[in-house]
Write a structure and sequence with these properties.
heterodimer, A: about 350 residues, mainly alpha, 3 domains, two-stranded antiparallel sheet, 12 helices, globular, B: about 475 residues, alpha/beta, D-Maltodextrin-Binding Protein, domain 2, five-stranded mixed beta sheet, 19 helices, 16 strands, about 40% helix, disordered N terminus
Chain lengths: ~350, ~475
């Protein structure tokens, strides 16, 4: 922009400035949210686009985008170089290329299975139409396709299971945590139990849960098969502790001034909990929930592996049992999938926390 | 009447006319639907090539043709599979022939399991580690080409076992289940070579009393890994796990079960007696579909085997590489690396009346349970017969086969109609002993190693008899 003496209208300059200011405030506002979703590197790019000098933003950009990308690149390069040097009985450990190829083939298998399902339904239509035509309408049956679950199906199953287990855990842990945070007696009673059960491995719970669920949950429904309930309960048993402990801590450390004020106002207990306790302890509760979800996801894969319940864990175990030349690559695809999903779940919780809490320290 | 309806009718009429024309040349094949009581079924299987009839019946639509909607589910191990059938989570399963018999007589989990369909003949092998192979090779006579002479007797391994014993190392071997074909075959082979595989007793179910070779249970898919880890020095297992050892260069198959006992029965399809009694038509429909699948597998001199291999190599079935599965399924077997020999009958699914549940097959398994002390008390020949008849159900098989003959899928001579359920005395065992299913006790008398007559195992000694 060259300044000329022909006299630029100061109004336009001011308006321009104001627009620019608005743009920057908008960018600064959204910066918080973008970083929540792990998109922090977009901020310097936006600032550049909005007309900030590239130099001042470069440092920020290098830190938030170039450095992580370099890390990933170095890892992939090291993997590609080192993997072929480890020879297992299933052949060399597959490198990034082989794994990418296997990921594609898993997708193809998923598509092929869907096509088979479509064929099945088409055949069923034909058969039923034939029966109708022969006047045997009473023999017409509509059945679901009975194929094997694909990789995508297994991911969905695992996500459903972890969600179910996590919801159970939250329903149990939050009220208990609030109670033990409010009352020293409850806290004293729960504390030894928490200490004893917290370190128990999911694999130790599994046989017990399997037996109990098999005995009590007799009429399994289609929507909630036994295997899913078993896995979900194992997830619950292992993932409720972080939520419980953090909730108790959050409730116990509510500002004394607030509790005193509510005493003066003689707030009823329910109001006291909902208006004072919950809002002030939310940040810590969410920290607990985040930890719980992470633990739950980790536990679920192990539980599925051992109990052969449908899901990603079973996929890994089945591939290990198959022992074909592509098995290792498929297992590595699964490992990466598990990692990425775990990361996304964590981000999701982080976003929820950001949405629901008013604290400045995230 | 619409045009569409009219044309459809004409087409149907034309089709009918053409089929009646063809039927004078070939058989018209049409499945008559049975009125099945339960049409959504779940069957379990273990990842082994001999589950092929199930995979084929599903993939080729034989189950669907009978109006059955079947889900096939791989199981972690034989125990889980059996429990699944007993608790009703599974409606039926690919089982070891010994499982229904053992469950019915109450060895292990007690439950009355029956089998109307035998799944295959042969299909197993015995593999030893490279180390053991190198040590036993000098004791094996060679043929004209300098290759080891087959069948290889366990006698060649005896000095190796002695060496390990002298060094204070127990000679461990793996098999897949205490009542598995593999356990009995491995024991048969060891005993025929003068190596004692150990006895079972009611208070000691390790099966290692008086043993020179110590047998323990390892799930089939883990066999190669366990061998590689040095936990065991050899194992007996179904395919593809013997060929896998050659491919990976971690072991050498020394003998196939075809050479231990020619055309021995291997797996069966098991269901609870309760299920069979409550769902007679469903059972018939299942057996019909399985017979069709077995026939497809052996048709035109194994012409369909490559397609079957492709099916089996899918990850939801066996999942091993197609070339590994193909080795045995297409009639060759690789012993040492590069020593590939033809074993055309390594996997038999339909020839030689393979699918017919013979009482004599059941009797052989029961006789081996008695031989090694799993049946601790002496039993009369009539007891053997009663148990065989309560578990093996050729009546159901024949009914299903009769329907298939009527529908044109089978010919009369493909089914041993009119047999009394006992095969003629079988002579082709590695040790030359003859087996007559009508006299199991007389059969047991012929073995130098093993319980016979009134003998029992007490503590660590054989008493009585």
């Amino acid at each position: 922009m060259a300044m000329s003496t022909t006299g630029v209208d100061p109004e336009t300059i001011r308006a321009k400035e104001a627009r620019r200011e608005r743009r920057f405030t908008l960018i600064n506002k959204s910066a918080g949210w973008l970083s929540v979703f792990g998109l922090g590197f977009v901020v310097p790019l936006l600032r550049m686009a909005a007309g900030d000098s590239a130099k001042s933003q470069m440092g920020e950009l290098v830190q938030s985008l170039v450095v992580p990308l370099t890390g990933i690149f170095i890892f992939i390069a090291a993997w590609a170089v080192l993997a072929p040097q480890v020879n297992t009985s299933l052949g060399a450990i597959p490198g990034p290329v082989a794994v990418a190829r296997e990921a594609a083939s898993l997708w193809d298998a998923h598509v092929a299975e869907r096509e088979k399902a479509a064929d099945f339904y088409a055949r069923q239509e034909d058969r039923n139409a034939k029966l109708e035509a022969q006047g045997k309408a009473d023999r017409v049956k509509w059945r679901d396709y009975t194929g094997s679950p694909t990789y995508i199906d297994q991911i969905v199953t695992s996500l459903k299971t972890v969600a179910l287990g996590f919801i159970f855990a939250t329903i149990v842990a939050v009220p208990l945590g609030i109670a033990s945070g409010l009352s020293r007696a409850v806290n004293g009673a729960l504390n030894p139990l928490i200490q004893i059960f917290k370190p128990v491995s999911p694999l130790a719970w599994l046989p017990i849960v399997t037996m109990v669920v098999s005995a009590t949950y007799v009429d399994a429904s289609e929507a909630l098969p036994k295997s899913m309930l078993i896995s979900a309960i194992v997830v619950t048993l292992c993932s409720l502790w972080p939520t419980l402990i953090n909730t108790a801590l959050g409730v116990a450390s509510v500002d004394k001034d607030l509790t005193n004020v509510s005493r003066v106002l003689q707030l009823p207990t329910w109001k006291f909990v909902s208006k004072v306790i919950l809002p002030s302890s939310l940040p810590l509760i969410f920290t607990g929930l985040r930890l719980s979800l992470g633990v739950g996801w980790m536990v679920l894969i192990a539980a599925e592996m051992l109990s052969q319940n449908p899901g990603l864990g079973k996929f890994v175990w089945d591939e290990f049992q198959n022992g074909s030349s592509s098995s290792l690559a498929k297992i590595i695809v699964a490992v990466l999938t598990i990692g990425v999903i775990g990361f996304l779940l964590d981000r999701l919780m982080y976003a929820l926390q950001a949405a629901f809490t008013f604290s400045n320290q995230r | 009447m619409t045009i569409a309806a009219f044309t459809r009718r004409t087409v149907t009429a034309l089709l009918l006319a053409s089929t009646s024309l063809v039927s004078s040349v070939a058989l018209a094949q049409e499945t008559k639907w049975l009125d099945v009581e339960k049409d959504e079924l779940k069957f379990g299987f273990i990842k082994l090539t001999d589950m092929a009839p199930l995979a084929v019946a599903y993939e080729k639509g034989f189950f669907e043709d009978e109006g059955l909607f079947v889900t096939l589910e791989a199981q972690a191990n034989w125990k889980v599979l059996l429990d699944g059938v007993i608790t009703g989570q599974l409606d039926g399963a690919h089982m070891l022939a010994g499982q229904p018999l053992a469950a019915t007589i109450g060895y292990g989990t007690e439950a009355h399991i029956v089998t109307p369909f035998s799944m295959d003949l042969n299909g197993n092998g015995i593999t030893v580690s490279n180390e053991v192979w190198e040590a036993m090779k000098p004791n094996i006579p060679t043929d004209a080409d300098g290759k080891p002479q087959h069948p290889i007797s366990a006698a060649a391994m005896k000095p190796v076992v002695e060496q390990y014993k002298a060094a204070g190392k127990p000679f461990n071997m793996g098999m897949v289940f205490p009542v598995s074909t593999h356990n009995y075959e491995l024991r048969y082979w060891l005993a025929a070579g003068g190596i004692h595989p150990g006895f079972y007793a009611p208070d000691d179910i390790s099966g290692q009393i008086l043993a020179e070779a110590y047998l323990s249970v390892t799930p089939p898919p883990q066999m190669p890994a366990t061998l590689e880890a040095g936990t065991i020095y050899g194992y007996c297992v179904g395919e593809p796990w013997n060929q896998q050892a050659v491919f990976r260069g971690i072991g050498v198959p020394v003998i196939t079960d075809y050479e231990i006992w020619k055309n021995n029965p291997e797996k069966v399809f098991g269901m609870t007696k309760e299920f069979v009694d409550e769902n007679p038509n469903t059972t018939l429909a299942i057996v019909k579909a399985l017979i069709k699948a077995a026939k497809w597998l052996d048709e035109n001199d194994n012409a369909n085997r490559m397609e079957a291999v492709e099916i089996l190599s899918q990850p939801q079935y066996v999942g091993a590489d197609a070339e590994v599965i193909a080795n045995s399924m297409t009639g060759t077997f690789e012993y040492e690396k590069g020593d590939k020999r033809d074993v055309p009958d390594f996997n038999v699914f339909f020839r030689y009346y393979a699918t017919y549940p013979y009482y004599s097959d059941a009797t052989w398994y029961l006789s081996q349970m008695r031989r090694w002390g799993q049946i601790a008390e002496p039993k009369s020949n009539s007891w053997f017969e009663d148990v065989a008849k309560s578990v093996y159900r050729p009546d159901i098989y024949e009914e299903a086969a009769r329907l298939l003959v009527e529908e044109g899928f089978l010919t009369e001579d493909e089914v041993p109609f009119g047999t009394d359920g006992y095969k003629a005395p079988q002579t082709e065992f590695i040790d030359g002993v003859t087996f007559d299913g009508r006299d199991p006790n007389g059969y047991l008398e012929k073995f130098p190693i093993g319980l016979k007559g009134d003998q029992k195992v007490e503590g660590s000694a054989v008493v009585g008899g």
